[in-house]
Amino acid sequence: MKLVAGEQTDVGRVREGNEDEKLVDGRMGLFAVADGMGGHQAGEVASSTALEALRAAVAAGVPIRDAIARANEAVLERAGDDDRLRGMGTTMTAATLAAGGTLLIGQVGDSRAYLVRDGELRQITEDHSLVEEMVRGGELTPEQAEVHPQRSVITRALGIDAGVDVDLYPVELHSGDRVLLCSDGLTSMIRPDEIGAILRRESDPQKTADQLVAAANAAGGEDNITVVVLDAVDGDAPPAAAARDGAVAENGSPPPSRKERTGRLARMGRVGRVLLWAVPVALVIALAFGAVGWYARRTYFVAITDQRVTVFKGVPGGLLGWDPTLEERTPIRARDLTQAERSDLADEKRFASRDKADAFVDRLGQKVDDREEAAAASTTTAPTTAPPPPPPPGP
Ligand code: MG
What's domain 2-240's architecture? Predict the structure, then answer.
């Protein structure tokens, strides 16, 4: 199995600089895209530093996951040396071709890998992004995620922490498979069905790469766009186009280490490290959520359930996942209430504290008691209040 590559990167139509970087090394069988972030060209430094370190590590025989960890260390070290680079980071989606035609893809961030097999497009990687986690948690639909204002906030990147969780995806390549590595400048501009259509329509990998970039620019080009297109082909003789630019990888890369094999089976834990700049966003959300929760949990209401007057903690119907809890089922029976009292409670009387709710219940209980006493009194004095006896029958 060999891989024939096409590649393209473009600044897009809005950004001033291109902070994306790609790596295509057919001889080593190493392919990657990195999307850097950080002000004052720091993003460019982050992505290029990461890819240089990745290449050096893979060249030295380091397995892909550890090579990405080394790239992480390199970005951190570089940022530590220069105040202007502090806080820079980068995504990385990197693929190595191993023995037996297995493509091993390591993933950190929201750049992606796709596979086209038998005409069908499949996304291989999962984004480490805020909206993707919200989609997985059922808080957003995929359609809502596409237009969410925080859709570019990522939850994992290289250059943030001393340790980094790398997700690994092995793909057993078949002849005719096509793999796409791309930055979010492509996927945020054109939908997967359009990406799939271009990947199916154009057979030449370089023309395909060019067309993908052109499509993202035609859609607005709001971010840097980087794509690497890899075609899996049988045989040893490199196709002419590939031989020309040397973009052919043979099965010469070292086989995956035992650690990688384990990694394939037991996927990495999915607890993402929140980026430094994602923390304020998360904090605001947490505070807002906490405020709603505080309101939901300090409020009480009184309602009729199971024919009894009942005190609940919370807000009727619940609020953002805080369901009301039953605090007390009082001895006051619904049937002892007047019509007016019952309809009052049908609207669920709300109170700002338990004391106030209790005071209301006490008054209600008192009214019921008063009525019962009055009724009892009227029963015992029945003769004086009873209607006059019917008139005696007529003669
Ligand atoms: Mg980007």
Answer: 4-Layer Sandwich (3.60)
Confidence of residue 258 (pLDDT cuts 50, 70, 90): very low
Contact between 308 and 332 under an 8 Å Cβ cutoff? The reply is yes
Between the CA of 268 and the centroid of ligand 1 the distance, in Å, is: 24
Q: How far is the CA of 175 from the centre of ligand 1 (A)?
A: 31
Give domain limits for the chain.
2-240, 300-377
pLDDT higher than 90, residue 31: yes
pLDDT band at 393 (very low <50, low <70, confident <90, very high): low
Whole-angstrom Cα distance, residue 342 to residue 233?
77
Question: Identity (one letter) of the amino acid at 389?
Answer: P
Does 256 have pLDDT greater than 50? no
Quote the ligand 1 centre to 62 CA distance (angstroms): 27
Q: Is 223 within 8 Å of 187 (Cβ atoms)?
A: no
Q: CB within 5 A of ion ligand 1: which residues? A: 35, 183-185, 223
User: What is the Å distance from ligand 1's center to 137 Cα?
Assistant: 24
